[in-house]
Amino acid sequence: MNIAETDNGYRVETESYRVTVHADRFEAGVGDSVFFELSVRSEVSTEAGPDTDEETIALQVEQSADGPVFVWRTRSSLWERKTYRLECGEAQFLYRVQVVGAGSIRRVAYFSGAGRTACKGSKYDASHYALSVAAGGGADVREQTTAQNADLTLGYMAPPQFVFPFRMEGAERRLGLGLAARPGAYHFDRFSYRFHAPYYGLFRMYLETDLHGYAKVDGSCEIPAILGIGGRDEWETLAAYGRWHYEEGGCASARGKEPRWWYGPFFCGWGEQNAIERTNPFAHATQQAYTAMSDRLDALGLQPTVIIIDDKWQGRYGESLPDPAKWPDLRAFADREHAKGRKVLLWFKTWNAEGLDADECVTLWSQPLGADPTSPKYRERMERTIRRLLSDEAGCNNCDGFKIDFANCMPLGAGLRTFEPGVYGVELLKRMMTLLYDSAKAAKPDALINCSACHPYFAEVTDQVRLHDYYGGMRHSVDVMKHRAALFRAAMPGVPIDTDGASHTNYRDTIAYMREAPLIGVPDLYNLSSTAEAPLAAGDWAEIRAIWERYAASLQHQGGEGR
Fold this sequence. Notes:
Strand content: 25-35%
CATH topology of the largest domain: Beta-galactosidase, Chain A, domain 5
Distance between the termini: 38 Å
Number of strands: 29
Shape: globular
CATH architecture of the largest domain: Distorted Sandwich
Number of domains: 2
């Protein structure tokens, strides 16, 4: 780390980044390239309205074990004191904001100028930023220009890594700016880049997140920080953001000795349910239909390690118990599959309140919106239910884990009520995932939790990630899914990846993905029937069988358990 005093400030330079600190702003970049000239002032608004800093601001320089710390102190229209800290380490810098006073924080606009600048925001020279999310649907946008707004929010990746890797024309490296919360303080659901141009010739940017009033301050409060990290490209930048969370951000991984069956191949019945009846696939999540699918796998000579029972095997989503009309004997089905060498995963719809009592739910104006993992009543229900689903005890169903879906479909926005006040957004999702994970492991230690999390904060409650739905109209599944897999690997190195079934709406794309899936992660077959759009002949099934056999042999070559 090189530290130098300049004519009007200080400069700190490492291999990863460079900052030059001035009286009320700091330049941030990499090497000789200055990506941003950031106002040190950030708006921390409350229910009382917007936040404007006083004009006077004082800078002090302190020293920590990791490097210099630059501290600015001021007051504002809403806060008795505001403190901005720029902590410079060898691999990254952290920008922190602390407020003192009383109020419920609504929105934070980082580097906005907090009402002291002629135009809201800060100067920038970065030209583009990569999106650390899977776009989903027909969109496959991986990069935006800095003249476009973007939100990193809960979607196919729930949550994603909340970081924007910026690049600048002519610069050899990238600079990432990301949200960095302390464990227990992830009370937000998005991280946003904002472009602002009040009139021709004046252009500014700032970063933003919403706390929706759940952060109630009576004294002092530190809001989520901004982490600055560098990298040679977007992937190195994303990996550095993830690595900081494991090394400095209090996140931990659950990686360990993983059972061989976690690595598949898998068969998921969702595509086949649609093949049976596209207008109502939910009617075919039945014991009869899945027994037929199992027998069809046998006839094709396919030997998955897992069969996934998809939507809707449940009688009522919130209760998460088998529909007795569809599943007269789920235990018998699971035992039959075990005898064939297959495990049974159950598709799990997160948050759905169907069948739950109001005091088990997140509410808005007393109306239930979704399951509440902070409710003792709901927690007791799920612990009891998951044991019944997974345990091999008498009277239980002896299944082997969950494919967790709809994690992003949680109650969001201001005014929500949970049993434990103030738990919101990503933090509430972490509570849900912890409840499901811990309950599953208590019932069956090798139970598999397959989910959509793509952030280090969830690594300790994630056994396997899934690449999620693919919009078949795109016709480039391999490219789309490789990109998603790379995002997961940056966030959770070593995590097993369920490749999901990339459509069955086009023959060429379907076969291409079947061939490539073993190189991306765990092969996952969704269909056993030919369709008009993707007619699979005997030769195609022979090829898929050979692909799976080579894949299984490669796992044995690598040691049998895990990869």
